[in-house]
Write a structure and sequence with these properties.
alpha+beta, Multidrug efflux transporter AcrB transmembrane fold, Alpha-Beta Plaits, membrane, about 50% helix, transmembrane helix, cell membrane, SecD_arc
């Protein structure tokens, strides 16, 4: 029993790989991760666990750089990032410290405010007294990483299954953010990306000169828990339940206590004694207008710098803030007029704000593929794959005219592709046209290697012993190994460089070569030995 297993363990390994690929392709638990609110069956794109990219599923691809300028090799002189950002922002008329980033590890200072020009940034750096080597377009690697994380969070929170975000680099060295969202229209994706996602609560209150505004009474970092959007109890409008942090790590006043003090100071408790809808803020004029003769303070919900809603405060909530007890819990509702607005606010709060804007309308590009076109591409890919297999099989049969040699060759080559599909399902790698091209290349190179084995083994006459077979097989395998090494070396740059679809082609070509050298070629050798060796 042990002797047959020892002699044919390579064949058994191939069988195990094929069985494992079947589990990955069709078994439960290996499909794409469902988006929030989506079931596993809804996330699955077919009878298999394979995921399809834009080319085969339809969807939208957006490629755009991040807007901003970065000063490199900055002499920070030991100053803290906060001090540097404050000093540079003070020299810019149209930017705040939120728009200036400092990355000590990269010795870089960046500005992400769209209205700031390169000359203005240079002048600000000079005026702040920080020496630098140069100023370039774009942002730091840290900001690009944060942006990719936030965009991925936006995609996930919006329930866009299968969306991906990655960084790519052009030949000229410029960095781009590549966003791909299968199954979604172009405008939907662009709207999602163009929202920078900054959400804050301002306090507008009447003063002797008209209307004053306390900016940023609550900002995104102040929220500890963010609920999902819900319809208002009154049947009109919607809200997002949130919890404001009532602790501060550095011992300073917590956001909940600071907001509570601001509300109490502006007189919300006196203004809202009987009802919560007497806010007369006019977003067009920026003024608080009288309602029933009273000009009352208002809370402003500001998204991406635009006031999307203004509201008063429930009398009980206002009283608890005036009494100083509200901050113990920090529970609050961000109310809006529309449920879709509440969903957007919840999404932005959960995902966070983009550190920089995507320049989609400038240097960016976007494209979309309809679902029907993607389905056509899948059909054509399947047809081309089948035709390539038949073409290779026909040439092999014409070459050898011996089914016992040719048939195992075709079966082994197909097993190699099947194993690659299993790896794709296991890794959750979306199949694109470039990946399909890699599969076809694997079929061609794989059969080529198997032909080398068959020719080397059979070219010198009958194989009358296992020793003779092993000697000829080793000679063939050296040739195959050298060719595989050459292929891997040639494809390696495409695997590591950010070149979009070419990376997928290179990854699966190299993976196919490794599977062939380590599993399928040795297994075919064992099969051929059993068929040809005279015992």
């Amino acid at each position: 029993m042990l002797e047959p297993i020892k002699e044919n363990w390579r064949i058994l390994l191939l069988v195990v790989v094929v069985i494992g690929s079947s589990v990955a392709l069709f078994g439960p638990g290996f499909g794409p991760e469902p988006a929030p609110g989506e079931s596993a069956s809804e996330a699955q794109q077919g009878i298999t666990n394979l995921q399809y990219g834009l080319d085969l599923a339809g969807g939208t691809r957006v490629r755009a750089p991040l807007s901003g300028y970065t000063a490199t090799d900055v002499a920070l002189d030991g100053d803290t990032p906060g001090a540097v950002a404050e000093a540079v922002a003070a020299e810019l008329d149209n930017a705040s410290t939120r728009d200036v980033g400092v990355v000590p590890e990269e010795r870089a200072v960046e500005v992400t405010e769209l209205s700031v020009t390169e000359s203005q940034f240079r002048a600000a750096m000079d005026a702040a007294g920080y020496e630098y080597a140069d100023v370039r377009s774009g942002v730091t690697q840290q900001t690009r990483d944060e942006t990719m994380s936030v965009i991925q969070g936006k995609i996930n929170e919006a329930g866009l299954s299968g969306g991906s975000v990655q960084q790519i680099q052009s030949i000229t060295g410029e960095y781009f953010i590549l966003v791909e969202v299968p199954g979604q229209g172009r405008q939907e994706v662009i709207d999602l990306l163009e929202e920078r996602g900054t959400v804050r609560i301002d306090v507008a209150y009447p003063d002797g000169n008209g209307t004053a505004v306390q900016d940023g009474a609550l900002i995104q970092d102040d929220f500890e828990e963010i609920g999902t959007a819900a319809q208002s109890d009154r049947g009109t409008g919607a809200y997002v339940p949130v919890t404001v942090r009532n602790t501060a790590a550095d011992g300073s006043q917590s956001p909940a206590h600071a907001f509570q003090d601001a509300v109490a100071q502006r007189g919300f408790a006196d203004a809202y004694q009987t009802q919560a809808d007497r806010c007369g803020y006019n977003p067009e004029t920026g003024a608080i207008e009288a309602v029933n003769g009273d000009r009352n303070p208002c809370l402003l919900l500001v998204v991406d710098g635009e006031v999307v809603n203004s509201f008063g405060m429930d009398p009980g909530l206002a009283d608890s803030m005036a009494a100083g007890s509200w901050a113990d819990t920090g529970n609050f509702r961000l109310t809006t007029g529309e449920f879709t607005e509440a969903q957007t606010i919840s999404l932005n709060l959960r995902a966070g704000a983009l550190p920089a804007d995507l320049d989609i309308s400038g240097e960016g590009t976007s494209s979309s593929i309809s679902a029907s076109q993607g389905e056509n591409f899948r059909t054509y890919s399947l047809v081309i794959g089948v035709l390539s297999v038949f073409a290779v099989a026909g040439m092999v049969f014409l070459r050898y005219r011996e089914p016992r040699v040719a048939l195992p060759m075709i079966v082994t080559a197909l097993a190699e592709v099947y194993a690659l599909l299993g790896f794709a399902a296991l890794l959750g790698y979306p199949l694109e046209l470039a990946v399909i091209a890699g599969f076809i290349a694997v079929v061609g190179t794989g059969v080529d290697d198997l032909v080398i084995i068959a020719d080397q083994v059979m070219s010198e006459g009958d194989v009358n012993s296992r020793t003779v077979f092993d000697s000829r097989f080793r000679q063939a395998f050296w040739v195959i190994g050298a060719a595989a090494a050459t292929t891997i070396i040639a494809m390696s740059p495409l695997m590591v460089l950010s070149l979009g679809d070419l990376s997928g082609f290179a990854i699966f070509t190299v993976l196919g070569v490794l599977i062939g050298v380590l599993i399928t070629r040795p297994a075919y050798g064992d099969i051929l030995r059993r068929l040809l060796t005279v015992r």
